[in-house]
Amino acid sequence: MVGSMNASEAQPTRQLLERFTAEVGHVVALEALWAHGSLALGDYRPGRSDLDLVALVGAPVSGPQRQQLEALHRTLISQVPEAAGLHCSYVVRSQLSDTGRDHVTWAQSRLFERPVTPVSRRELSTGGPALFGPGPAGIVAEVTDQELAEFIRGDLKEFWYPASARPSLWQRDIWVDLGLLTLARAAVTLRDGRLITKGQALEVLAAWGAPAEVVRDIHRRRYEAGPHRTSLPWRIRRGRLARVFVRTGIEDTLAAHPGP
């Protein structure tokens, strides 16, 4: 978690999380705050990775509370640049076991509703750290390998495969990064049931023979300081290479792991 970074890297993130925990507790009936994603898996990079959180609350979020949460997040973003990547789902304890239920969520600079996915639930139930209150182990139900695999196959088939046919999306960094990294992580999980970090996914992509210049581009933006290539011709070329590789990779992965 934050403790895996050196002191100078960890301090701003720790301060942001402490401030967020204190302030959100004044808005909702906060019972626990858990981390998943890069922060939980030990691959968090300040200013580059998202802070993926789940807030366990004792009562449904009311209309006025939604407005307060939106104001809280926007204020944090205006004052702390790293807060732009702070995402949080507000899950009512009594609704936690309903895996398909939507929950109030702040992500990508807006408030909306979405479920806590089986991937996030697996991360939580197998060691997601608590930032406040009791840890998720024993509270979040364990996700079976079958449930995890079914979700991953559906995500690849219903979301990422159609997206791979839309060239304009792939001129953006986020689509290139998430497309390739999601594919690699999904294939490993379907193969042997384990979750891997984004850094490990880059190693998998390199071993698969993914376009080397695209893999290097993702690595530089995630792990290295300095300027990065941003010209339109490069983004068009990178997007084509990425989406063709992802599209073919999804076809191969689903054929290798068709499910029951």
Unreliable residue runs: 1-7
Total beta strand runs? 6
Shape: globular
- Main beta sheet, described? 6 strands, mixed
Structural class: alpha+beta
Level-2 CATH architecture of the largest domain: 2-Layer Sandwich
Summarize the amount of helix as a percent range. 40-55%
Structural Rg: 19 Å
Query: What is the third-level CATH name, the topology of the largest domain?
Result: Beta Polymerase, domain 2
Order of helices and strands: HEHEHEEEHEHHHHH
Instruction: Indicate the proportion of strand residues.
Output: 5-15%
* Averaged pLDDT: 93
Organism: Streptomyces atratus
GO molecular function: nucleotidyltransferase activity
InterPro entries: NT_sf, Polymerase_NTP_transf_dom
Keywords: Transferase
Spell out the blueprint of helices and strands:
Elements: H1 7-24, E1 30-36, H2 38-41, E2 51-57, H3 63-79, E3 86-92, E4 103-107, E5 110-114, H4 118-125, E6 130-132, H5 145-163, H6 173-192, H7 198-208, H8 212-223, H9 232-256
Parallel strand pairs: 2-3
Antiparallel strand pairs: 1-2, 1-6, 3-4, 4-5
Helix pairs in contact: 5-6, 5-9, 6-7, 6-9, 7-8
